[in-house]
Amino acid sequence: MLVLLDQLSQRKQLAPFISGTNGHVVMGGVLAGLQCGRVYADRLHAPASALIWAKNEMFYLIGSSDNDQFNRRVREVLVQELLPEALDAGEDMLNLEVYPEPGSDWSPVLHHMFNGRLREGLRVPFQFNLAKYEKWLESSSNSLSIFPGYALQVIDRAVIVEDKSRIIEHEILKFWHSVDDFIRYGVGTCAVYKGKVVGTCISVFVSGVHHEAGIHTYDLIHRGKGLATAIASSYVRLLLEQGCVPHWTTEDFRHDSIVIAGKLGFEQGRAYPVYYMPIQELLP
What we know:
The chain is α+β, with helices and mostly antiparallel strands.
């Protein structure tokens, strides 16, 4: 059995499953209804297994893996509903993390569910260290200066309206239900060049005071100039001023992201598995 949990009161039952996981901010944002996604469980009350889709980010299987009926339905829902929707939203890859309850093992389930075709990669989590960030700020004032012609701005409603290319709005709506929700609960900064937004760093998932960062520089010609570091540092400062906690997670092959995180006082944790495959390979 697979039940859609569309009420916040129903989703709250899954909070103990995600406590202490690497993806707790992402899943927490979806469970709270702040960010776009879908939540399924094996039953409406006292669920033992669950599937969480954080749109434009990750799929999660959590809880008991020893649940044959649930596992069969997960494959059906993915292929018939969620992956076509993800493809329409611009995703081209299924990315999946698993968080088993003690004594469970999702590995054989995944092998059977995806016919042994899942690839395995590594995700790198970081934990923010305020003392390291402050020390870096003290020693890097010159490195935070940006190239002439560029300006940093805090993303607010006026900046979003001024962005005629609608890059900021597009980035927000990849994760949030509305711009209003982002303005109320999220934080963001952007870089502007000749009146055009060329880079953003925003809260892509929010769970309580915890914010997961998403950062982009949109054109190769604007990269390699320290913009990403400057945008991200400004974003982190905004979060700290509001009493929030920044989070950073990336793939092990995204070396620039890892370097930026290290500069900003994030301490690298142990890499963990993420499973992936092209969505088109799963669809009929």
